[in-house]
Amino acid sequence: MEVHTHSSPAPGGTHTARKKWTHYFWEFLMLFLAVFCGFFAEYNLEHKIERERAREYAIQLYNDLKADSSDFNSEIEFSKRSVHKLDTLSLLLNDYRNQNPSPEVIYMLSAFALRENVFEPITTAIEQLKNSGNLRYMGDIALRRIFSEYDVYIQILKTHYDRSASTENEIKKILTQILNIKEVSFVSKSNANELTLFPGKVELNASDLLLLKQYANWCILKQQNLKKRISVLTTAQRELRKLIQKLKDNFHFK
Question: Can you spell out the DSSP letters for 13-68?
Answer without folding.
Answer: ----PPPPHHHHHHHHHHHHHHHHHHHHHHHHHHHHHHHHHHHHHHHHHHHHHHHH
